[in-house]
Amino acid sequence: MLPMKLLKKLLKWSKITIISLLLVLAIAYLVIYNLSQQRIQKTYSYTDAAISIPSDSLSIAKGEHLYKIRSCQDCHGEKGEGSLFMDDKMLIQLTAPNLTKGNGEIAAFKTTDWLRVLRHGVDKNGRSLFMMPSHEINTLTNEDLANLIAYCKQLAPVANLQEKLHSIGPIGRLLMVINQVTVLPAEKIDHRAIHTEKLKEKTGVAYGQYLSSGCQGCHRPDMKGGGPLAPGFPPVPNITGDGNVGNWNEQSFIATIRNGKTPEGKELNNNYMPWKSIGHFTDEELKSIFMYLQQIREKH
Ligand code: HEC
Ligand code: HEC
């Protein structure tokens, strides 16, 4: 048995250690809270040239195709009905809103509101939205963006998700502060960019690069891949000519995206690599993406 005196001393020390630990944690959280809060509260201003939204069926059909290849349905649903993005108090509590006129806010949306969200990733007060990938959609030409908006505006009203969740928890803030996840799209956007009216060539390397902006969030802007996007996820492969894909041909690339299985026989898990959404690209579009990826080569 320890002598009484030592035991008392030990207890006292443990108490001091625990209290100091709690204090350090509290201070760390305060710092994280303040750093993240400054970024959340930041407002963005911009001026946009007006664009006109078509209403003919051909433009709407093009908009529907864009809705699918840009994976809007993954978060907002096939019919635009909206979905629960995540409900985790530690990470984030967030809904991907109902985009149909069943949502009062959307019903009141003007073209400038659609531009605000899709081009700038900000809410009515000019603050960044959470997790909405506006920084990847932002590069759309005026023509494509107008068609996408035309499609969204005519979605049949669905009464779903009237309650909006929008708050971020302590772990979510930490991930934001260490820049592990893009929580605030507005930070990644050049708000003064001048947008191309329409693309002249809808084939080839430049078109492939244009179409592949949605791959960047995972495969990184240089398409060379990197570490897992979250714990438990697989690493993201290099899909340039220098990677494994460099050994494939156009047909095997298209087949991989359509069937979720690589020429080497590897099954791609749709939860990590969303091949089902990407499979909405036409063959012609996939050919351009493949052309773009193949010509990124450093090794010879
Ligand atoms: C990764 C999931 C995800 C994808 C993909 C996505 N969104 Fe969103 N979107 C969200 C979330 C989450 C919000 C709400 C953000 C918030 O509350 O800060 C949102 C907000 C919006 C809003 C604002 C709605 C409102 O009530 O203010 C519009 C409009 C919108 N998205 C349209 C689209 C369109 C069109 C596409 C496809 C081009 C798309 N989104 C793709 C997650 C996504
Ligand atoms: C949400 C993240 C995400 C997005 C978006 C995404 N990918 Fe992937 N992709 C992955 C991950 C993760 C893997 C590896 C999957 C595995 O190991 O099972 C992968 C694998 C691949 C592979 C197989 C590579 C190999 O060597 O086996 C190809 C090809 C590919 N992606 C192409 C694309 C293209 C093209 C786009 C855009 C049109 C895209 N991906 C968008 C995450 C993503």
UniProtKB/TrEMBL annotation:
PROSITE patterns named among the record's database cross-references: CYTC
Coiled coil: none
Keyword Chaperone: no
Stated name of the protein: Cytochrome c domain-containing protein
Pfam families: Cytochrom_C, Cytochrome_CBB3
Molecular functions per Gene Ontology: electron transfer activity; heme binding; metal ion binding
Residue ranges of every copy of the Cytochrome c domain listed in the record: 58-156, 203-297
Keywords linked to the UniProt accession: Heme, Iron, Metal-binding
Transcription recorded as keyword: no
